[in-house]
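Would you be willing to look carefully at the protein I have copied below?

:::
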Amino acid sequence: MTFQINNKIAVVTGANRGIGLAIVQSFLKHGAKKVYLAVRNTDSVQSLVEQYGSRVEPVQVDVADPAAIKNLAAQTTDADVVVNNAGVLKSADVLDPTAEDALNFELNINTFGLLRMAQAYQPILADKEKAAFVQLNSVASIKNFAPFTTYSASKAAAYSLTQGLKDSWADHNIQVLSVHPGPIATDMANEAGMSEGADPAELVSEGIVEALQSGQFHLFPDTMAKDFETQYHDYAVNIVEPLPESN
């Protein structure tokens, strides 16, 4: 299955900065009819409204709040593609006294946020002739990094859920894309001390457009991610990507 962004309507969470902002810009560059800017504070995207006019529309959401996600879906029933980009990171290794709090925080947004978004948009996307759901995971979803153990755990769980979505939605013409960036030049990477040598967010956003067009399930968009892909490729192609025989 392939999915073209041109003339489609998109929802992007965390659209005000970093990878989310780059995704908005790439989608519009490639002809998206409209992008809903799903953010906690709609004032944070006013510059995008000034730049793109009616091609963008701010919508308030907090992915930690199930009711807010249901409200978002109710306001965006014309969406063809949903990008679940919003995420959080707290630096905590497995022995850190704050690890349990950090993991709860990250699971609520990075993992349960995905679950809530997928369930809220299931009837909307399934009703389309062709639709797509993009999940921002991480190289940390397939390899734990000790200083960010709890983040890695939350992203590993999100990656597992993404695989489940791929199989569950295969009969509904919903393309699922799992995106696995390494360090990207964003505020989150800078705050985590990973900005040195980080690649630009545009690599991720342009990669998403191309991956949807070519029908990929995995996207490893940047320098570090491509190193991971080289080693992970055979397992991904032979174990993760094949659909169950019932599909």
Q: What stands out?
A: The helical segments are 18-29, 46-52, 66-75, 99-126, 149-168, 187-191, 201-214, 223-240.
